[in-house]
Amino acid sequence: MREWIIPAIAFFLIISGIYLAGTHAYSWAKGVIAVEKGNYSVSIRNMEQEMDKNEKSTNTDKPDKGEKIGEISIPKVDISVPIYEGTSEEELEKGAGHYSNSVMPGEDNNTVISGHRDTVFRKLKEVREHDVIKIETAKGIYTYRIEKVRIVDAEDKTVIVPKPEATLTLTTCYPFTYIGNAPERYVLVGNLINSSEK
């Protein structure tokens, strides 16, 4: 009677392994398709529409969609990436994207910039409170100090609300190692501490 126990356990383990491998492969494929179809960008566009309802930038010289507006650098993790106007997949494939309905860097209110967690913002998880982030545009160099690190639901609109002072909000998908369409967002919020106009 005991002779069937070991083969039964082995069979159960094999079936369990096949099931787990299949579900992980499905999640991975679903994530690849989501990036290909721009589901991440759809979520971002929904957030942009929400911000548009709240408040638009006071800057009348808004750049065109897809235009490079500057560079963002984070000295602590030794990265420097271009920033493009807009957050569609086209912009996010080239660098970080600036939410069109948020203010430009250096202006009073909330500047919102997003990037993919597995490309331009893959080192964002190493950034902590009090770390410095610099943004250089044609108008100047703006230095922000991170004051808060948050993890929020993907549909949380509080990351794009207007702010009473010059604020930088960086967002990327979370968890960083998640396969597929991540359910949360990793958010860094910083205040402007220095600006050097050109």
UniProtKB/TrEMBL annotation:
<dbReference type="InterPro" id="IPR023365">
    <property type="entry name" value="Sortase_dom-sf"/>
</dbReference>
<dbReference type="InterPro" id="IPR041999">
    <property type="entry name" value="Sortase_D_1"/>
</dbReference>
<dbReference type="Pfam" id="PF04203">
    <property type="entry name" value="Sortase"/>
</dbReference>
<dbReference type="InterPro" id="IPR005754">
    <property type="entry name" value="Sortase"/>
</dbReference>
<protein>
    <submittedName>
        <fullName>Class D sortase</fullName>
    </submittedName>
</protein>
<keyword id="KW-0378">Hydrolase</keyword>
<feature type="active site" description="Acyl-thioester intermediate">
    <location>
        <position position="173"/>
    </location>
</feature>
<feature type="active site" description="Proton donor/acceptor">
    <location>
        <position position="116"/>
    </location>
</feature>
<dbReference type="InterPro" id="IPR053525">
    <property type="entry name" value="Sortase_D"/>
</dbReference>
<feature type="region of interest" description="Disordered">
    <location>
        <begin position="48"/>
        <end position="68"/>
    </location>
</feature>
<dbReference type="GO" id="GO:0016787">
    <property type="term" value="F:hydrolase activity"/>
</dbReference>
